[in-house]
Description:
The protein is of the alpha+beta class. Helices cover 50% and strands 14% of the residues. The strands form two sheets. Strands 1-9-8-7-4-5-6 form a seven-stranded mixed sheet, sandwiched between helices. A two-stranded antiparallel ribbon has the order 2-3. β8 (235-238) and β9 form a beta hairpin. α1 (16-32) packs parallel to α4, α2 (36-43) packs across α3 and α4 (62-72) packs antiparallel against α5. The longest helix has 19 residues, at 77-95. It is elongated and about 70 Å long.
Amino acid sequence: MEQHHQSAQGGRVSTVLGRRLGGELLKLRSAAGLTQGQAAKVLSASTGKIAKMESGWAPMRDPDIRALCALYGADDPAIVGGLLELARVDRERRKAKGWWSDAPFSPTMKEYAVLESAATAIRTWQLALVPGLLQTAEYVRALNPDDHFVTARLARQRRLVEEPLLRLEAVVHEAVLRNLVGGTDVMRGQLEHLTSMAQRSNVSVKVLPFGAGFQTGMGCGFSVISFAEPGAMDVLYMDVPLHPLWREGGEGAAEHSELFERIARQALRERDSLAFISSLSKEL
């Protein structure tokens, strides 16, 4: 399933996490060969409620998820636990009011910021720009001089330094480091900041050099967002020009997780990546 933006209908909202959770329940129901009517019966609810749950239109209660999993024969504690955790995060995100509420972001970017605030880990592959979580204020201002935008972008970065710490694994193409965003001084500061942040235990930065040649995944950057252990509950965000996409299906996230690992294996080792970034900084 792909979404260009958060869906809204009346006072209800269909969120990325809600649709991700609903899609998993739909997959389990289909595998069990059951209908929405049979699922509704076990909850003493209408088929309309099941349809809304499977489409992510409403927050889900833990008892309902447990009852549906039992009906569908999904008794693996890891699967049930993952669904319950996803539901918990979705409920919290629906009611949360944070800095992103008034941020000058597009609906897609605002929802990304909400999910980023709840994530435990992010793996990101970037082809043109330094990942937002690692950008300096000067770099951000060169991209968008609006003070509110700069403040909002920097607010995202608190996840890297405040508990609970977000785990960030970033692989960037060499072009990212040679793209003089904001000019020489801004870029030198940005490269120094990258090497500094990469010293943190929760941050990993690798560089895919030009010499690595063409790699699958050169089409666009993407981020795999995890809310527990990386795996079935991951959500994928793709940096498609003009209309960024969510890929909420488990297969899409899994495929891109594997793609990220392949790209990371072709990249320089972390130590060599930092040495490479430092050498480029000195050349400026």
